[in-house]
Design goal:
Length: about 500
């Protein structure tokens, strides 16, 4: 009886200590007189299981912050900020970028070299890589890659023709991912991936594994909350088989090109150039070190996984909306045919630039279905919020709720309506410049935005010229989003009816 009493007292004491610990941690924003969303023990404001709930979670913060710069919250016991005004977003991404240039993403260069890529690195390592890689994505370099993308799109057209002849209701999500896999594989690695012919080709297989079979989501959250502990435990984020495949492919590609003096004017050529030669930081007149093999592999890896998934999802949502809105689809097809007629039916870089309505469709798709529902930045120093006495302490994550901003009726009336005319010049000028964040903004915006737009434009032009897309009984209406994929995507396959046009 005495033992039971002792155990009970100990248990009550432990629970009381834990409760008081969380109570103290969760008083952070209250003590600073900052509006916040009430947290729960032990995860704070984090949803317990579903990644897909982040969109809804950040919407709750956004709605609570009308008229103020931001709202406080908690990722477990870590204080966070969710931006709720575009002027504050502008301060974080652009005006005071030097105070918020980091993302605070866990990386482990030693045990997991593919994790140390441009998207995840911070500080001087990020800046050095950004300087080195920026010339890779100029409009001039895009012109070099353009014929390769057109060549893959022609193979895409032929493959789709054969598929539609057998069954005209297909999962466009899968076939589009195979197209972008082949484009990225060719431009990044100079290899024929053959995903269009073989859905189980190696590049498609390992690309699919990155997004469709992630590590346990709770485990990822522990890593996010305790990065120092994760480093000590040598935690890796990339699957071992995925890492071995991409490191092996990059090694073979570099050896083949260097031994045989192969030049292709593609992304891998540029990475090899950075591996073999110094780069000059012109702003500071400082020579930057060459890329290591592991750094080359990491950049090729992120270019691949980011390029194939986001672009294929972008085209898929575009086709979905044009199937729901046939008048938009016909207007796009008319512009394609009109422009191509002026260019002797040849799809050139200049012709694509003239198809402004296609660009509006792409931008409106990114507005309604942003690949990342939120952006993350981390305070690099103690930051005094303009026109207030509030200090954002160093290390505090700042969340920018992209999906909520893109669906705010103040900036986009009737936000659930798909309307490419939102992005005509007059409307663009009338809106706040930070009301569209499909590629982020500021010095740390998406470095590959030109390439992403280009391959999406070429893919959509090829498809709309040759096919008509309609909804079917299996088309997901209304849209239900995946709770597993880190990129905003449908929970189920995207079946559309496809009719081949007589040209």
């Amino acid at each position: 009886m005495v033992c039971l009493l002792i155990v009970t007292c100990l248990l009550i004491s432990v629970i009381s200590v834990i409760y008081l610990y969380f109570l103290r941690k969760f008083s952070y924003w209250k003590d600073r007189e900052v509006k916040y969303i009430e947290p729960s023990i032990p995860l704070g404001n984090l949803p317990f299981q579903r990644r897909g709930q982040f969109k809804e979670l950040f919407q709750k913060f956004y709605d609570a912050g009308r008229g103020i710069p931001f709202v406080g919250g908690y990722f477990s016991t870590q204080p966070i900020i969710v931006a709720t005004s575009l002027e504050f977003v502008k301060d974080v991404l652009v005006k005071d970028f030097n105070s918020f240039h980091g993302r605070g993403i866990y990386t482990n260069e030693k045990d997991d070299p593919l994790s140390a890529h441009l998207f995840s690195l911070d500080g001087s390592k990020w800046r050095s890589l950004r300087i080195k890689l920026s010339p890779t994505f100029t409009s001039g370099k895009m012109r070099f890659m353009f014929p390769t993308i057109v060549e893959v799109s022609n193979r895409f057209n032929q493959a789709l023709k054969e598929i539609v002849e057998k069954d005209n209701v297909i999962d466009v999500k899968d076939i589009l991912a195979r197209f972008t896999t082949d484009v990225i594989g060719t431009c990044a690695f100079g290899l024929e991936c053959n995903s269009l012919k073989d859905p189980n080709a190696e590049f498609r297989k390992y690309g699919r594994l990155v997004f469709e079979d992630p590590l346990n989501s709770i485990f990822r959250r522990v890593i996010m909350l305790f990065p120092k502990l994760a480093h000590k435990l040598h935690v890796i984020m990339t699957r071992k088989d995925v890492s071995e495949f991409f490191l092996g492919i990059v090694k073979e590609t570099i050896e083949h090109r260097e031994q045989n003096d192969v030049k292709r004017n593609d992304f891998m050529d540029m990475l090899i150039e950075l591996k073999n030669n110094d780069t000059l930081d012109e702003d500071n007149n400082v020579k930057l070190e060459k890329l290591t093999f592991e750094q080359v592999a990491a950049q090729a890896f992120v270019f691949f996984i980011a390029g194939f998934e986001t672009s294929s999802t972008l085209m898929m949502f575009s086709l979905y909306e044009m199937a729901l809105n046939p008048d938009i689809q016909e207007k796009a097809r008319h512009q394609i045919n009109t422009v191509l007629a002026r260019h002797n039916e040849k799809l050139s870089y200049e012709a694509v630039k003239e198809m402004v309505y296609i660009d509006q469709i792409v931008t409106e798709t990114l507005r309604k279905y942003p690949p990342l529902v939120a952006l993350r930045r981390t305070a690099q120093n103690n930051y005094e919020v303009p026109d207030s006495k509030i200090i954002i302490e160093k290390g505090t994550p700042v969340i920018i709720p992209v999906y909520s901003i893109h669906h705010d009726p103040e900036y986009y009336p009737n936000p659930d309506k798909f309307d490419p005319d939102r992005f005509i010049a007059e409307q663009l000028k009338a809106r706040h410049p930070l009301s569209f964040l499909g590629f982020g903004d500021g010095p740390r915006n998406c470095i590959g935005l030109r390439f992403g737009r280009m391959q999406s434009h070429v893919g959509l032009i090829t498809l709309l010229k040759n096919y008509r897309f309609e909804i079917s009984a299996r088309t997901p209406i209304p849209m239900v989003f995946s709770i597993h994929n880190p990129v905003l995507s449908p929970a189920d396959p995207m079946y559309l009816r496809i009719e081949r046009l007589k040209l």
